[in-house]
Design a protein that fits this description.
With about 150 residues, the chain is mostly beta strands. The chain has no helices and 9 strands. The strands form 2 sheets. Strands 1-2-3-4-7 form a 5-stranded antiparallel beta sheet, with no helix packed on it. Strand 1 and strand 2 form a beta hairpin. The N terminus is likely disordered.
Length: about 150
């Protein structure tokens, strides 16, 4: 379901890309599960700048089943398609991040949880979205010529 609002003369619309309800606080979600993603469009003078808000649920256990408290989480790395270089690092037990302006095309986001002892989780599930082109590509140049220089 999309929404529309006007703030300081800028028309903003957003859409919840996953209509499932938020995970209840007493649930035991899959570690690193990104349960909702919202894409934000900011329209000004006919141009669209897209960002994505990422939200996830932190793990409460380690892979061996032992407890993992929020105080044991050092940070969360955010990845966009390239799984070797994070686009950002959220300090502590943060559970949200808003990207900068995204380029047109497909974006595949994952997160990796880092604990205070230097261990890393496996990547979360992938949350994908496509940023649509808002203007058609320019037409190609024409009448190209080449002259050989002496």
């Amino acid at each position: 379901m999309g929404r529309l609002s006007v703030l300081w003369g800028v028309v903003m619309s957003w859409m919840d890309l996953n209509s499932s309800p938020p995970v209840p606080s007493n649930a035991s979600p899959d570690p690193g599960f990104i349960h909702r993603m919202i894409i934000l469009y900011v329209r000004r003078k006919g141009k669209v700048m897209s960002t994505a808000s990422l939200m996830w649920v932190l793990p409460t256990t380690r892979t061996d089943g032992s407890a993992l408290s929020p105080s044991e989480i050092q940070s969360v790395d955010i990845f966009d398609t390239d799984t070797t270089t994070p686009i950002a690092n959220v300090p502590g037990a943060g559970t949200t991040f808003t990207t900068g302006t995204l380029s047109v095309g497909v974006h595949n986001f994952t997160v990796v949880v880092n604990d205070t002892t230097g261990h890393k989780s496996a990547p979360s599930n992938t949350a994908s979205l496509t940023v649509p082109a808002t203007l058609a590509n320019p037409s190609p140049a024409t009448s190209l010529t080449a002259t050989l220089n002496p």
